[in-house]
Amino acid sequence: xxxxxxxxxxxxxxxxxxxxxxxxxxxxxxxxxxxxxxxxxxxxxxxxxxxxxxxxxxxxxxxxxxxxxxxxxxxxxxxxxxxxxxxxxxxxxxxxxxxxxxxxxxxxxxxxxxxxxxxxxxxxxxxxxxxxxxxxxxxxxxxxxxxxxxxxxxxxxxxxxxxxxxxxxxxxxxxxxxxxxxxxxxxxxxxxxxxxxxxxxxxxxxxxxxxxxxxxxxxxxxxxxxxxxxxxxxxxxxxxxxxxxxxxxxxxxxxxxxxxxxxxxxxxxxxxxxxxxxxxxxxxxxxxxxxxxxxxxxxxxxxxxxxxxxxxxxxxxxxxxxxxxxxxxxxxxxxxxxxxxxxxxxxxxxxxxxxxxxxxxxxxxx
Length: 366
Prior knowledge:
Helices cover 49% and strands 19% of the residues. It is α+β, with helices and mostly antiparallel strands. The protein is globular. The protein starts with a helix and ends with a strand.
């Protein structure tokens, strides 16, 4: 049995209901492959070791969907919540670190986007991203979800201000990587999409030591559709027919006419579901009053959110982009359903009771 299939078997031993959406968006394989160091391998502090033990990321034509175990994330969040109780300055330090890290990596990208930097400078940028920015980004999002009501009332404005300040970083990272890929496409006779279909070790060895990139046909398969299974030591890459096998494991769900999540902003509306996995593909068909259903939202979703009657997401907490935007626009929003994009389909007529965190399917689409 191959090592890929062995890991395949390990995935099957996990309760499918424990897999939860971590993020979804327009990020290339090369971009998210650097995050594995943070997700599964990077220690946070003496009190909290790594974030999760495994991450599964689906990729298709430059877009990614990440899944992690809810039970493992909960353990991390609990330890994080304990730090807020033990250290009265923890939240202030966290927010300051997040803003400083965001400024550091943003300034680098603004000054260097499109430049032909050397490997050492590039490596320092990636190291800064996963050391100075990303840990605080995750901690900022999670800590609010485990705070007592008293602490949340005290710290939410501070946490939200830091979160909004840092929000542009991820889009900037992908823009930077796209520009870098164009430079190296000219050097290698590979298209930018193929450069961005390499993973961290492959690109680093090419960049630093001049080693050959994987053959084009391999990268073309990855770009078309692939899955990445990261753990504390390895990354498994799955393509072609086996992608569907892993999707059936991770994204499996029981059909139900009702699902639930957390309230980000209260309210009750009815409307038709618009499932959004790619903003660009639905801009022309998204209409006023649609119910926006997605893995998570980002700034590019804002035009759709202004039209939507309500938002429903798989992932996210009260400091997610969807939750913050819902409070700003005062629109009903249910977050953290984990399975909304699995259960709800385009055209389903639903009732959103965001006050109680309940979505009811009134009529299935034909």
